[in-house]
Known about the structure:
By secondary structure, the protein is an alpha/beta fold. It has 16 helices and 18 strands.
Amino acid sequence: LLKADIQNKIVVKYEGYIGRILYNVLDYKKGKYRNSRVIINKGSSLYFRQTIKNTMYLTVREPNIYDSKLAKLKVAISKVMSKFVLNNNIILLYEKNANSYEESASILYEQLIDEGYTNCYYILDKNNSKFKELNNKYKKNIINKNSFKHLIYFFKSEKFIGTETLTHVIQLRVANRNINRKLNSKNISYVFLQHGIMYMISLDSEMRTGFHKKNYKLHRVVASSKLEAKHFVELGGFNKSDIYITGLAKFDKNHKNKTADKIVVMPTWRRWELNEARQDFTKTGYHNMIETIIDSIPIDLLQKTIVLPHPLIINYFKESNSNLKYYLPKEISYNEILKDCKLLITDYSSISFDAFYRGSNVIFYWRDKEKCLRMYGDKTKLLLNKENVFGDICYTKKELATSIINSYTNEQQLKHKKRYEQIVEFDDNKNTQRIIQKLKEDKVI
Length: 445
């Protein structure tokens, strides 16, 4: 099981009928989140979990901080202590793994602090290098990740604003009943800022259900255009009134240096390869694809090449024996690297929208597209196609090599700019202010 997918749906199959396993038969009409004992063995945690819709999954992942008995006690104590916090209007902001400070949540957080919203708090590991660089007025409302205050405010707060699914505010794939019942509470107001424009992998994919509309008291999504909003309405189950068509806050700070000359390689992560990457990253299709891309870059441009793996897989790259580690940057800051990016090569990562917004060319290498779409699930579609894509599409190594030379030496094409504007409508650097106005209208702030 160590090389299995992170999440594996369990079904009963008999005489051609496929049904669901119930962790507790009494939950048939009203499901509650439950999970089995967490088995930790050979550096992995395995457990069964039952969703509130009575579907069972086998989860295979790295052990996390909340797996231990001591941590469970800390969670239980924090839940009780949260009842004694007098502030009933705590707003928690966060980014990926509650340990990032360079996307829309941090931009919005600083603007809210500047405007005097003292009830806004940001979750961040204080060992993060970004914390040390912050102005003291922003540091005051930073809550240290995994601290007692983090847990207490998590249980107390009913307002969350983040660039990721709500689970990132505490811990991905946590196996703790108290935490998961809080995450599924109907009293929550949750505003999803998006970590990147999601007009890419379709929301009807089985792997994207975490981004569907949840039964929260208030559930809002920031989008960059009417076209993207339509995607959330038609495939994510949202109402038109749930969408803030404002543009992403982080785009207000996006720019490219005049001296930008780097080729940045960043395919998106492959969830189904994550456990395989933990065993041997060099054996994954993800590594093989990056290897092919590097082999296609002219020798004289290799010294300007940076491999920027997805945040959820980068540590396995660093710890591997790959000879491609030479191309990894010493300091990982996606924003800073994109400032020096002249050409981005990806498969279908949302970082392509960031790069193009800044003025960089983008190449989409779709060698593994059909295989990856199958792994995402039967319904999955790629929303970008030959008619609306804002960069060259390559399927072979030969096509890629030719495109790299052309895209590196030329400016963005007019047809690509017009296509891009259909998906990203705003370029006035006022996205954050539009989001704040929407938050006021919904009485989130």
